[in-house]
Amino acid sequence: MSMTETVIACLSCWSRSNGYQTVAVSQVSGSERYALLTPDRYFKSMLRTSEHIVFVHGCPGAPSSTKLLVLYDKELHRNRSNHCPYLVFKLVQSQVVDLRRRDFMAVVKAINEVLQVIPAAPNQPVVALV
């Protein structure tokens, strides 16, 4: 049996829906993983979606270390497209929890790490948010 819940995540993309979002997720039965219930709201295809876990340290107002899960469209990311959506969730002890205002800099740092660490396709420039 899977448990469905809504959490506040942050969507970073070039659209009007950019920013904090209420996202419906369902915990996959027998695991610590979660599934998006409406992935088409954020991504063209879940088959093109990848994830990256980031530990962010030293953000004002946030705990000493914040664990964030960043979902992104790997094809748009590899092409360094301005249209690549990044959907960020906060994790506490393997549970998805609401992002708060104080977590915003951690979200920016997490997306920046994905931009720097996950390689682009050859001949694509590496960009940074900060």
Find the count of extended strands (DSSP E, 2+ residues).
Answer: 7
Proportion of residues in extended strands: 35-45%
Low-confidence stretches: none
How much is the radius of gyration in Å?
14 Å
Please tell me about this protein's structure.
- With 130 residues, this protein is mainly beta.
- Helices cover 15% and strands 38% of the residues.
- The protein has 2 helices and 7 strands.
- Strands 1, 2, 3, 4, 5, 6 and 7 form a 7-stranded antiparallel β-sheet that branches.
- The radius of gyration is 14 Å and the shape is globular.
- The N and C termini lie far apart (42 Å).
Summarize the structure.
The chain has 130 residues and is mainly β. 15% of the residues lie in helices and 38% in strands.
